[in-house]
Amino acid sequence: MHSVQINAFGKPWEVVETVTLPDPGAPGSAEIIIDMEFSPINPSDLVLMRGLYGVKPKLPAPVGTEGVARVVKIGADVAGLKEGDRVLFPRGTSTWLTRSKVKADHLFALPANADPQQLSMLMVNPPTAYLMLTEYVALKKGDWVIQSAGNSAVGRAVIAIAKTMGVHTVSVVRRPELVEELKKLGADVVLVEGPDLAKRVAEATGKAKIMLALDSVGGPGLMPLNDCLANGGTLVAYGVMSGGPGPFFTAPNIFRDLTLRGFWLLNWFNRNSPERQIEVQKRMANWIADGTINTPVEATYTLDHSAAAISHAAKGTGKILFKGS
């Protein structure tokens, strides 16, 4: 069977390779055997390959952080699952491989009617959007949220989830052609980044009091987003897509009582019980099943074309998935 791994840190498309591994064999009494159906290439995977992520695996290292799989064999003591069920890969399991032997603890059958490509992206981006919307500011119906990278997978999930909450969104994008696309998804205001962002946001929202901003870009764009917040507001930073630092002035945060927080999903997992994690995952699965959350997929690749897949994903033009054979 195939597995994707890295042997060094560097340019992701140069350090990745596909290797052949033996079949994992029969499951233990509390284990299951799963075949990968789809697994996305996330920005965090690329950051890890460059050696810049919050954790640095020992090399050589298998990669892939989330995905959906079919159960093909079940251990004697496993309850609540059957062969043919779709399940998420357990957290902490490498996902870019054909077949895996995993513990069945805390796994559950996903909705049978849901798109497996969308389910493969359930573990990271939708929970990130949901938790940032619900765990930092007590938003009410009619409130506003502003975000950068509104066309990203997290950005699209923020738009969809905020809509179910009755919360309005301002999404900042880099390309004018994205404006109408995001409005069709339900975004209330979509603006292209540039000068006088705070002024344009105030005009578009009727000078709404914005208490929550979400940023995945960092760099020079962080301060303009910060300027859009009302006094006492919170900016949650969850990514560094810009790849570098930018100006961030302390004085406005002091005098306007603004808060800057960082969000990393791994920290949330470490703080919360398996029961809470499953609760959030099931909520996301239901939203995927009914079409509330949907991320466009640009292309899929088999595992034996790992370098091409990673190179495509690094261009940032759309979501790329690995698919099982």
Structure, described:
This protein has 325 residues and is an alpha/beta fold. The chain folds into two domains: 2-121 and 297-323, Quinone Oxidoreductase, Chain A, domain 1, CATH 3.90.180; 125-266, NAD(P)-binding Rossmann-like Domain (Rossmann fold, 3-Layer(aba) Sandwich), CATH 3.40.50. It has twelve helices and 15 strands. The protein has helices at residues 12-15, 43-49, 116-119, 125-134, 153-165, 178-185, 197-205, 222-227, 250-255, 265-271, 274-289, 306-314; strands at 2-6, 16-20, 31-40, 61-62, 68-74, 86-88, 99-103, 144-148, 168-173, 189-192, 210-215, 234-237, 259-262, 297-302, 319-323. The strands form three sheets. Strands 3, 5, 6, 7, 14 and 15 form a six-stranded mixed sheet that branches. It has a six-stranded parallel sheet with strand order 10-9-8-11-12-13, with helices on both faces. Strands 2-1-4 form a three-stranded antiparallel sheet. α4 (125-134) crosses α5 (153-165). It is globular and about 60 Å long. The relative contact order is 0.16.
